[in-house]
Amino acid sequence: MKSFVPISAALAALCNFTLAHYRFTSLVVGGRNTGEYVNVRRNTNHNSPVTDVLSKDIVCNAGGLSSGTATQIAPVAAGSTVGFAMDQAIYHDGPVSVWLSPAGSGNVTTYDGSGPWAKIWELGAQAGNGQIRFPASGQSAFNFQIPSCTPPGEYLLRIEQIGLHSASAKGGAQFYISCAQIRVTGSGGGQFSPTVRFPGAYSGNEPGILINIYYPVPTTYTVPGGPVARC
Known about the structure:
Blueprint: H1 4-19, E1 24-29, E2 32-36, H2 57-60, E3 74-77, E4 81-86, E5 96-102, E6 118-123, E7 126-128, E8 131-133, E9 141-145, E10 153-163, E11 174-185
Parallel strand pairs: 3-11
Antiparallel strand pairs: 1-2, 1-4, 4-9, 5-6, 5-10, 7-8, 10-11
GO molecular function, one term: metal ion binding
Protein name: lytic cellulose monooxygenase (C4-dehydrogenating)
EC number: 1.14.99.56
């Protein structure tokens, strides 16, 4: 009986730790949730985050580069609103960003995300009066527009939320990532700029990644990865 209390406490701590994690599991098109891992590539690390920004896992999460052939492609019109839904609400404070990468002449189901990525949307922080707030916290779905200038073709659509609760030490930031497979339709003919590569977009030393959000309270915050691209 004496050993029951610490074991129970350990199990409770493990449960709370697990529940504090989350996943982007579904794509939302035309206001309809298309289902868990129908258009979103399935990862292999359950709801654990990526912490190594130089790893290939930063592209589409652990296992996300090998699950494309088991994932369907969603047709999406340029200029339309789409979104990602989660298995539970965001628990850790931090920003959200959304990225597009064209599969080129190949099929997106076999595309490894090694090409250019354009940030098309971000949700950062509100700082001032000695406080910083991340509006993404507590949310379980995010909607955004596919730019109307997006050329037709197949793309990886990547969403990333960074948990900054332990980010005061390098490698402490937690990256929650999913990639969906979409086929953009329309007559867009733009070229996105700027673009980045994953891995490569982050070193881990960026002030939006290596940061103490508690003390001293930041007076400003910039979402890492550069500005939202234009085309």
